[in-house]
Design brief:
Structural class: alpha/beta
CATH superfamily of the largest domain: Bacterial extracellular solute-binding protein, family 7
Shape: globular
Distance between the termini: 112 Å
CATH class of the largest domain: Alpha Beta
Helix content: 40-55%
Length: 376
């Protein structure tokens, strides 16, 4: 009996072994080998070659330095690097002076896909960007365009409030004018000379002009030449590079130096669908070149502010007027309520006005210390 039982158990075991073995997948892959700590990193998967032609809209005329040296320098570096470092190609088609989209249409047009890329001012899309307006208030150091450009771009990188304002486009980078001056056909040496004077002025500079007795009139820079020539306005507040780039030296006579009152932001933006269609290697090149050109645009604008004033003086005999020290301080002090008014209005929108101004002051002071001497 015992012998029979042992025989049955042996037969059962022999039958069961192949059944159990058959439950494991026959083609189960071998486990991945342990990575070699001394080996080369895994290569990124190859991208299939693609060609991109991007439509770029801007309000600047094609001869302006921001197009010839800024936009086209930026684009060439991107195209060259993409060709050298990836299997892809990127080219740009240019639409200058509002030919594809008017200055006030560029931001929305890019967001909606009417252009792949565009450069414009936040202030041209009124009421949409309340936080960014803080950078255009009077009274900051605002030493030059380089300081102003790095200030807005670095603040945007760190501020969720600023990022939220521009979330419907892919920001390439920001930059800014830095200081601007009065360029007029009326001699301005005291605040009383501003009484009733109609001048193109935007953002905080327009509010400051109102407090000083002048009358701000808002329109895109591209309309300045005609509006001054025909007497719609008597001049404008702007950086002096416009004397050459927009030919305003032909229609104005005086430059009154008021660097504390003016700063306007610019932005280069891309449509999100366009951005998402770019391969990762191309996106990385865009991001790297964008960071570089915050500095390049700031330097260009600082350089051409000096060049533009020299052009106006030497080619058209414009007169440069420096305010007397007491008068200068009087203008500075009178413009300061603009900041308080902005804080109050911004609080009314449910935004932390004082916190935003403090942020601008912090970045302005930091980059004034770092770049404030550029161009001097």
């Amino acid at each position: 009996m015992k012998t029979k039982l042992l025989l049955l158990l042996l037969i059962f075991a022999l039958v069961l072994v192949p059944v159990i073995s058959g439950c494991a997948p026959a083609d189960e892959p071998a486990p991945d080998p342990e990575p070699d700590p001394n080996g080369e990193p895994d290569e990124e998967p190859e991208e299939d070659a693609q060609s991109f032609t991007l439509q770029f809209a801007t309000f600047w005329p094609g001869v302006d330095f921001q197009v010839e040296e800024g936009h086209k320098g930026w684009a060439k570096e991107i195209s060259d690097r993409v060709a050298a470092e990836t299997p892809h190609s990127v080219e740009f088609e240019w639409h200058y002076a509002g030919a594809l989209l008017a200055a006030t249409e560029i931001y929305t047009g890019v967001a909606q896909g009417a252009a792949d890329l565009g450069s414009t001012c936040p202030i041209y899309t009124a009421g949409v960007f309340p936080v960014s307006q803080a950078f255009e208030l009077p009274g900051f150091n605002n030493d030059n365009a380089l300081v102003a450009s790095v200030t807005i771009h670095e603040a945007w990188k760190q501020s969720e409030l600023l990022q939220k304002e521009f979330e419907d486009v892919k920001i390439m980078h920001f930059w800014a004018t830095g200081p601007g001056d009065f360029m007029t056909n009326t001699r301005i040496e005291t605040m009383e000379d501003l009484a009733g004077l109609e001048l193109r002025a935007l953002a905080g500079s327009g509010s400051a002009l109102t407090l000083m007795g002048g009358v701000p009139v808002a329109f895109p820079m591209g309309q300045s030449y005609e509006n001054i020539e025909t007497g719609v306005v008597d001049g404008l507040i702007a950086p002096t590079d416009t004397l050459q780039g927009f030919r305003l030296a032909e229609v104005t006579k005086y430059i009154t130096k008021t660097p504390f009152i003016y700063n306007i932001l610019f932005m280069k933006v891309m449509n999100w669908d366009t951005w998402n269609a770019l391969p990762p290697s191309v996106q990385q090149i865009f991001d790297e070149v964008n960071e570089k050109y915050v500095i390049e645009y700031g330097k260009l604008r600082t350089d051409y502010t000096l060049i533009g004033q020299q052009f106006g003086v030497e080619e058209f005999g414009m007169e440069v007027i420096e305010l007397a020290p007491d008068e200068y301080q009087r203008w500075v002090e009178l413009s300061m309520p603009v900041v308080d008014q902005w804080i109050e209005a911004t609080d009314g929108l449910g935004l932390p006005g004082q916190e935003i101004v403090d942020m601008v002051r912090e970045f302005d002071a930091r980059y004034s210390a770092e770049y404030g001497s550029y161009g001097n």
